[in-house]
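Per reviewer request, we include the raw input and output of the structure prediction for the construct analysed in the revised manuscript.
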Amino acid sequence: MSALSSTAALPLITTPSIATAPTNGIPHELAARFADFYGRWREQRGRDEFATVEDPELTRWEALNSELAVLQGRIMSCQPQTVDDIVLQARLCALINSELWTDAATVEAADAGARSHRQLLENIAASSGAELLPGVETISLA
């Protein structure tokens, strides 16, 4: 028997771990978890806009940012299968970089890369008829 006809002679093929491989589509429970998170994020922004000093240590924002990091890892590891999946990923990216939409100094100082990033995310949402950051007042690019 030659080495080519024997499977024993084949090298061991390594495959990526199932835990780190992209999944097909964003699971509904994960999309629902993001929707719940987005609502709480907007509520916290609303409290901040009214200058309500309930959390001078910013512990609420720290908790929200930690949760967002976990959601980012889970959602972005999914291979989008639908337009809704792509919009959800665009919305997540916009939320992570929300200053590009909500902070005048950041919008004004944005370089070409940041502006292109913002425009791409806005185009993704617009092409599907969705609002990128629903219920959030945004600052236009100049």
